[in-house]
Amino acid sequence: MATKVLMAMSGGVDSSVSAALLKEQGYDVIGVSMQLYDRPETMDPGGKTCCSLTDVLDAGRVAKKLGIPFEVVDLRGRFKELIMDYFVAEYTAGRTPNPCARCNQKVKFGLLMEIADSLGAELLATGHYARIERDAGGSYQLIKGDDPGKDQSYFLFSLQQHQLSRVLFPVGELEKRQTRELAARFELPVAQKNESQEICFIPDNDYVRFLEENGVAAIPGEIVDRDGKRLGTHKGIHNYTVGQRRGLGIAWKEPLYVTAIDHAASRVVVGPREELNRSRLIAVEPTWTDRPISGTFTGSCSIRYRQRPVPCQAVLLPDGSLQVDFEQPQQGVTPGQAVVLYDGVRVVGGGWIAST
Question: Which of 205, 215, 217, 227 is the most interior residue, by most CB within 10 Å?
Fold first, then answer.
């Protein structure tokens, strides 16, 4: 009897090709799309988001083409609770959230794994560009995707052994060009579809509008330098993120950047580019793909998606948080984002940046 796989289908090229490859390899594939939020369908159906009604319909068309069963699960309530409310709360607290990494942690490899169990599927597959290998000791290791321009291992850092042992990434060893070629070979109706880029539940990319429509008050406050000198006024800390240069509304002799956000005082701190430098960060809620680090870990880390990993050392603190020291100071270390530890191409684990 063929192994049953639940294939998460977003309606995009990557997951569609993944489904086709799994069927070709002899798996018993069940396609599933998640309805995660309500999006006005008057918007451009060829846009660059995922999980809208148009995308669900595209996934259904692909499933029909492949001759596999297809389900749509309504997760709007849980998605609002786990992702959208989290997004709003993080900005309210002066942090910059990472909804894609959090969605992988809580929804795609959390709720969907539960759905796989309910349907009797032994495995769960997605269209992520990453790889899973089993080492000599029997542990499952999360490895960077072979296409460096598409590698998505940063977003998957929270996967642990019980998940890695049941997950497949069918396009993880491919380049995007090869995925497109396979979509044409399989004659998939989404072969030329645009890639998703923006935050899925904010299709116009106007996150400030979204936040204010969801209860975030535009409370004005001071823009100050690192010594506390007032340089201007802001319209709400949710308009800013660490590293931001544009939109500060301050005429100055040199470019200024947001270097910190003081939520308690409702202040935005700015300074020249060199004041973005940080030599250390503290991350909370660390998770590990295999075993927690012991002693001092020496390897590399990324503090944002598509950042080339930089040399670092890391240690677990007595309170359970993770301290990461950079070999060279880094700019744009942003509370709310993820820090991901690498040992070569292997993901060791990571956590959520709390402070610098």
Answer: 205
Does residue 40 share a domain with residue 177? yes
The pLDDT tens digits of the residues spanning 203-223 come to 888 999 999 999 998 999 999
Comparing C-alpha atoms, which of 110, 107, 155 is closest to residue 129?
155
- pLDDT of residue 45 exceeding 70, the answer is no
Question: For a pLDDT cut of 70, what percent of the chain falls above it?
Answer: 95
One of 50, 51, 100, 103 is an active-site residue; which one? 103
Told to judge if 50 belongs to the known catalytic residues of this protein, a careful annotator would answer no
pLDDT recorded at residue 40: 55
Is residue 103 annotated as part of the catalytic site, yes or no?
yes
207 domain-assigned:
no
Whole-number mean pLDDT of the chain?
93
What values do phi and psi take at 115, rounded to 5? -65, -40
| The dihedral sign for the CA sequence 247, 354, 81, 290 | positive
Does the predicted model carry a pTM greater than 0.85? yes
Maximum pairwise Cα distance, the chain: 71
Residue 140 maps to a domain: no
In this prediction, residue 55 has a pLDDT band, given cuts at 50, 70 and 90, of: confident
CATH of the domain at 304: 2.40.30.10
Same domain, 97 and 75: yes
